[in-house]
Amino acid sequence: MSYTAPYRRQHEELERVVSQIWERLSFESVLRDPECIVQLLGSLADRLNVHLAMEDNALYPRLIHSTNPTTSETAQHFQQEMGGIRAVFTRYAEKWNSSDQLVRAPTAFIAETRSLFAALERRILRENTILYPMADAL
Description:
- By secondary structure, the chain is an all-alpha fold.
- 87% of the residues lie in helices and 0% in strands.
- The chain contains six helices and no strands.
């Protein structure tokens, strides 16, 4: 098993929850069952926090302390970039943490969710194709 197999599995789990939420990103769905969406968002937040903690505590230190300067620099860049994404996600999760909030502004919720999920998907793709192969090569 590769070093990054657990991280890749977590990406798959994150993508599964994102997909479940994405399926409910219509005005009608948000109004019909906001509680389900809030629960899925909670699950996504929990999984993302575990994933980020694992990366911060194990993956990034391993890569940053690599003797390969490219690996070290890439890991530092990814870690710094993730701090921005984490902050955006935290604000998003705090803003949309109740069904009442979703029902009051479904259009805004849908737009913010689509934007955030697109950024998250790009990040997952970059980690899977750039960062994780570096970690597996160590």
